[in-house]
Amino acid sequence: MSIESAVRTMLTGYGSLTVPDDRITHGYRLQSSALPAITFELDQTQYESIATNSDPLQSATVELRLIANTSAEALSYETAIRGAIRTGTFNSIVFRAVVLQGRQLESPVVADGDEAQPAQLMFRFDVYYR
């Protein structure tokens, strides 16, 4: 299994996150899909020497975006997303630690046609896994 599929399983398996499974995607969001939706990307993966035995941990930096129609709607998902970002075993990959680096809210851009942008609540976190 891949770290990307493990992150997706972590998100889809959290019951309080009410975004439908088909709207949680890696790397893209179909422009015609309904909102809210979640996209995520892995910025980097590397080996770490912080393991307690000879088997080093790997790490990945994840950027997650909750996309919604309004800022208020995006913010209403913050608690659920913080709960979904957690340790555990996902697709046989063990997340030993998850460190939230921060979050940022981008307000929607109100405009005509394709210049309009939905609100985005972005989270950046590191996953240490084996």
Helix content estimate: 10-25%
Report, as a whole number of angstroms, the end-to-end distance: 12 Å
Q: How much is the average pLDDT?
A: 90
Question: Strand order, biggest sheet?
Answer: 1-2-3-6-5-4
Which architecture would the CATH scheme give at its second level?
2-Layer Sandwich
Order of helices and strands: HEEEHHEEE
Low-confidence stretches: none
SS-derived structural category: alpha+beta
- Strand % is 35-45%
What Rg, in angstroms, do the CA atoms define? 16 Å
**Can you count the beta strands?**
6
Number of domains: 1
CATH superfamily: Phage tail protein-like
Overview of the structural elements:
This protein is an alpha+beta fold and 130 residues long. The chain has a single domain, classed as Phage tail protein-like (STM4215-like, 2-Layer Sandwich), CATH 3.30.2000.10. It is built from three helices and six strands, in the order αβββααβββ. The chain has helices at 3-12, 71-75, 78-84, and strands at residues 24-26, 37-47, 58-68, 88-90, 93-106, 119-129. The model has no long low-confidence stretch (mean pLDDT 90).
Task: Set down the secondary structure blueprint.
Blueprint lengths: L2 H10 L11 E3 L10 E11 L10 E11 L2 H5 L2 H7 L3 E3 L2 E14 L12 E11 L1
Parallel strand pairs: 1-2
Antiparallel strand pairs: 2-3, 3-6, 4-5, 5-6
Key descriptive features of the protein:
alpha+beta, 3 helices, STM4215-like, about 130 residues
